Amino acid sequence: MATRSGIVPTKKGTDGPYLRDLAGTRTQGPYIKSVLLYQLSYKIIRCVAFALQGGKSKQKYGYSKFFRDFFSGAPCNRVPLRRRAPGTPFQTNAHMIETGDDGYTAIAAQEAFCSFPDQAAASILAEGTSLAPGGAIHPLCAIAVAELQRYLAMQNEWKHNFGLDAGGEGAVIGKMFGVLVARTPDGTMGYLAAFSGKLANGNHHSRFVAPVFDGLANGGFVNAGMLRLTEINQQIAELEKECASFHQPSILRLKSLRKSHSVRLQRKIHEQYNFINKAGISRNMVDIFADHGYKQPPAGAGECAGPKLLQHAFRHRLEPLALAEFWWGLSPKSATWKHGEFYKPCKEKCAPILGYMLSS
After folding, report:
1. pLDDT tens digits, 229-273
2. 8 strand-pairing partners
3. Cβ distance 251 to 239 under 8 Å?
4. Fewer CB near the last or first residue (10 Å), C or N of the chain?
């Protein structure tokens, strides 16, 4: 009889429990093609449990409290993000944190950081690990991803149409998510989570790190700039509806105004993205991409999960150890993205930023 964790009781004549995928788990469970099951099938848990016992236990195979807690749904230690007025300090049990100019608190490490239930097992798995974006999926990333995927499949805090449920409202928008396994200054092992772009029309959600720059902040220049573009478009539409040929000079002038306004707005947005590298040195995104031959950063640069995760880690003195990104939901506009699959950070938008952030 199989348990929900996929651990099958010992067969007669064997020396311990063996691990395998339950029938249909990869295609029917909430973690479609979760790499965690792949790791389990290769007996990583056995090795960890054996190591925790110092290699002396008569029961050669077993599974630790770390994995029992994970599969029983043990919650990670998080504190939800809270919003404060600009300049108002945020009180935590540990220390005070000043808010940024956008009116949102600089998230304390312990508020976005999810610690692993079994620290001894996590530390063993992390031995000798160094961050290499795009490399093989680390077992701790697999565990973090499976927990995050379970949350995405079951949460009811917000609504976003990933296209996975019948009757979803609004356009189907699949999303790239990322996890970063990290270690705190006191040695605690855990992970951070992030999403690319917006999620449920927002930038701030309780399980995820904050954006590098919040363009959706009320009263910000982005909203004002977009409203101005809308006004120009409306003026153009009205003139074209009346008599396009008669109003041609005015229409051309408005289109030129729209272009220049859009370029200035995009430039100002890019200038708000300042990334910290592992040496603690901050640099603007425009300059980072200029070093790679770009006249300006690509649209959407700085909004991917990887840079968000590293920014939070370096800002709060966390040591990043392993990174993984996966696609969640359908992708109506592209056959590239498959639900539940892992992907390397993109070359166009992420590579220049990650290259700088990992430099010293």
Report:
1. 999 999 999 999 999 999 999 999 999 999 999 999 999 999 999
2. 18
3. yes
4. N
